[in-house]
Each structure stands twice: as structure tokens, then as C-alpha cells.
Design a protein that fits this description.
By secondary structure, the chain is α/β, with parallel strands linked by helices. Helices cover 37% and strands 16% of the residues. Strands 1-7-6-2-3 form a 5-stranded parallel beta sheet, with helices on both faces. A two-stranded antiparallel ribbon has the order 4-5.
Length: 230
């Protein structure tokens, strides 16, 4: 099988979706060099960080972090683009496994019991065929050895694109569109709410607010990338 895979790789070489260079057999989606050089935030090590501050005075988040810094035309943008629009699902799982191992080293995330991705509306899910946040959640769950459930949060009416909206307009666009399935099983749990990119935090705020309606629930947040609002 290894020889066959090696033969296929000569014809259809696997490439790193961050830099475009060929991958070795032991690499998946992202080459070792990019894993080392991608702009990691290390926010998971600090309770006061730029992602946590997004939610101050808005919703009671226990901890918040992002794996990478998002820069226009940068390698992280390339990864997100391939994950969301080019069908490269393994990127989400690969980053999730990497970041899950990082989160295990942080006391802020040590009591997480359940991982819940931000849902897509069913029409967008049908069109795309998958939810990139589900894939990230799955990778996190594998590394952290925690349960993940993509069916906890349900998205109702589809919203307009968030691009170019102000923070307040973004929140109004998503407020009241999320619903919970079987909220009773969430009571008293520490939930890790995950998404691909956080900019203003409005979508995550709306989801967290819904989860926090359940008695005893704590919510923390993790995303693949943090894009600072220009």
C-alpha cells in the first residue's frame, strides 16, 4: 500500500495548502515547515487576550482563543479558503488535532467536556456539502479525547453575509437565529464552542448566549483563526 501511495504521489502529488509545496508521506494538508512558521497566537496560555476581549461586557465567556492570526493574502487565509470553498476537509481536522494538543496544555481549557461547532443553515450546508467548523471540532475532539456534537446548536433562518457589517449590525443579523436540541443534557457542562474565523465575535456571542441559558453551563471559545477588524 505504501508503494502504491508513493506511486500515486508521483502522478498526483499532495501539496501543502498553505504554501503549495509537495508534502511528504507523513504530512497531511500542511507541511512541517508551515506548521512551524504559521502565525500562532498562543492566546490559549493567557486569560486576557485579544479574542477574550471581544466578548467583554457582551457575554460571559470562560476562556477564548484562536490558533492562528489571520492576515489578508497570508498563508492562513489560503488554508481557510481551501477548507471552506475548495472541499479540502482534512485541513479542518488537521488543524483541530494540532490545536487540540495545544489546548490540553492550558489550564483554561482543562475542564472542557463537550465540543460544539457553530452550525450552518441547512441550505448553505446542502450547497457546500459540509460544515468546516464540524471538521475543526472533530479534530479537536480526537486530540483532546472529548465528545463533540454537531447537532446541539441549530441555525434557523438564513442570515445575510457578515462581510462589511459593523459589530452591532453583525450581532443583529444573527441574534435569535440559533436554537438548542436536548438542552437538558448540557446542564452543568463546560462547553467548547468552535468556529473557523472570529472577527467581531457576533456569531459566537449569539451561540454562547443560547448555550448559557442552560443551568450551570460554562462556555469557552476556540477558532482556527482570529481576523482583527480593520
Amino acid at each position: 500500500m505504501t508503494l502504491f501511495r508513493s506511486f500515486l504521489s508521483l502522478i498526483f502529488p499532495s501539496v501543502c495548502f498553505a504554501c503549495g509545496k509537495a508534502l511528504y508521506d507523513t504530512e497531511d494538508s500542511i507541511c512541517t515547515l508551515c506548521h512551524y512558521h504559521l502565525p500562532k497566537t498562543n492566546y490559549h496560555l493567557y486569560s486576557d487576550n485579544p479574542v477574550t476581549r471581544l466578548f467583554w461586557g457582551r457575554v460571559n465567556i470562560s476562556a477564548a482563543s484562536s490558533c492562528y492570526r489571520f492576515a489578508k493574502d497570508g498563508k492562513v487565509q489560503q488554508l481557510i479558503h481551501h477548507l471552506k470553498y475548495r472541499g479540502q476537509k482534512n485541513i479542518g481536522k488537521t488543524v483541530g488535532r494540532f490545536y487540540g494538543a495545544e489546548l490540553l496544555q492550558s489550564e483554561l481549557f482543562s475542564t472542557v467536556e463537550l465540543i460544539v461547532p457553530v452550525p450552518l443553515h441547512k441550505h448553505k450546508l446542502k450547497k457546500r456539502g459540509y460544515n468546516q467548523s464540524d471538521l475543526f471540532a472533530e479534530g479537536l475532539a480526537q486530540a483532546m479525547k472529548k465528545e463533540y456534537d454537531p447537532g446541539i446548536l441549530v441555525r434557523g433562518a438564513p442570515t445575510e453575509t457578515q462581510t462589511r457589517k459593523s459589530r452591532f449590525a453583525r450581532f443583529r443579523n444573527v441574534d435569535s437565529v440559533f436554537h438548542l436540541r436536548d438542552p437538558g443534557r448540557l446542564e452543568g457542562k463546560h462547553i467548547l464552542l468552535v468556529d473557523d474565523v472570529v472577527t467581531t465575535g457576533s456569531t459566537l456571542e449569539a451561540c454562547a448566549g443560547k448555550l448559557l441559558e442552560v443551568p450551570g453551563v460554562k462556555v469557552s471559545v476556540a477558532t482556527i483563526a482570529h481576523a482583527e477588524q480593520q
